[in-house]
TrEMBL record:
<dbReference type="InterPro" id="IPR037898">
    <property type="entry name" value="NudC_fam"/>
</dbReference>
<protein>
    <recommendedName>
        <fullName>Nuclear movement protein nudC</fullName>
    </recommendedName>
</protein>
<feature type="region of interest" description="Disordered">
    <location>
        <begin position="1"/>
        <end position="34"/>
    </location>
</feature>
<feature type="compositionally biased region" description="Polar residues">
    <location>
        <begin position="1"/>
        <end position="15"/>
    </location>
</feature>
<dbReference type="GO" id="GO:0051082">
    <property type="term" value="F:unfolded protein binding"/>
</dbReference>
<comment type="function">
    <text>Required for nuclear movement. May interact between microtubules and nuclei and/or may be involved in the generation of force used to move nuclei during interphase.</text>
</comment>
<dbReference type="Pfam" id="PF04969">
    <property type="entry name" value="CS"/>
</dbReference>
<dbReference type="GO" id="GO:0006457">
    <property type="term" value="P:protein folding"/>
</dbReference>
<keyword id="KW-0963">Cytoplasm</keyword>
<dbReference type="InterPro" id="IPR008978">
    <property type="entry name" value="HSP20-like_chaperone"/>
</dbReference>
<dbReference type="GO" id="GO:0005737">
    <property type="term" value="C:cytoplasm"/>
</dbReference>
<dbReference type="InterPro" id="IPR007052">
    <property type="entry name" value="CS_dom"/>
</dbReference>
<feature type="domain" description="CS">
    <location>
        <begin position="49"/>
        <end position="138"/>
    </location>
</feature>
Length: 212
């Protein structure tokens, strides 16, 4: 799986992103309307990510960031600082190419950077929580739609049964939460309550308040 964002020279055309719909509003759309809505949001998201001064992608375990500098750049000229919840990348004595608060905590000791081909800074950020997608690297950047992300099929099939079930459950729950719908656990609780009601028709649940 790869959630990718690309750098730009500033020539990317501006694309207006459609207003985000609620889950109920989206459900009311016809199939062609949903397709048009999804396509428009995807195009706007791609334009936003294209305008960033770096490229990035992710797995459930880590984030990879690539930042280009002038050819012939040396590592000692760079100022790259990775903290548990922040990052800064740039040249020493100059404004950072980008910096800010990370979306979530990273493992500092396992997060590294290197300079490749005297030009590209390659950054590896090890996620502290390895069961969720990041919508952006730093909180000031535009978000991607994480409900559309899934692990590569080959990687998902390589997981053992228990781990695969956990990942698939996490993916389903993330999509449900984003749409304002019940998670898998909440659906199970609701089903259990419905079954209990059927088994005990003599009980009055009309005034019962149940919070999942």
């Amino acid at each position: 799986m790869s959630a990718e964002a690309s750098s730009s020279t500033g020539d990317t055309p501006s694309i207006s992103k459609p207003k985000e719909l609620t889950a109920s509003q989206y459900d009311e759309l016809s199939v062609p309307e949903r397709q048009a809505y999804d396509s428009a949001r995807a195009a706007a998201q791609a334009a936003e990510q294209e305008a960033l001064p770096y490229k990035w992608d992710q797995t459930l375990q880590n984030i990879s960031v690539l930042v280009d500098f002038e050819k012939g750049t040396r590592a000692k000229e760079l100022d790259v600082v990775i903290k548990r919840r922040s990052i800064k990348v740039g040249r020493k004595g100059k404004e950072p190419v980008f910096s800010g608060e990370l979306f979530k905590d990273v493992v500092e000791d396992d997060s590294t950077w290197s300079l490749e081909d005297s030009q590209t800074v390659s950054i590896h950020l090890e996620k502290q929580n390895q069961s969720e997608w990041w919508p952006h690297v730093v909180t000031s950047a535009p978000k991607i739609d994480t409900t559309k992300l899934v692990p590569e099929n080959s990687k998902l099939s390589d997981l053992d049964g228990e781990t695969r079930a956990m990942v698939e459950k996490m993916m389903f729950d993330n999509r449900q939460k984003a749409l304002g719908k019940p998670t898998s656990d909440q659906l199970k609780q609701s089903e259990a309550l419905d079954k209990f009601k059927q088994q005990h028709p003599e009980m009055d649940f009309s005034n019962a308040k149940v919070n999942f």
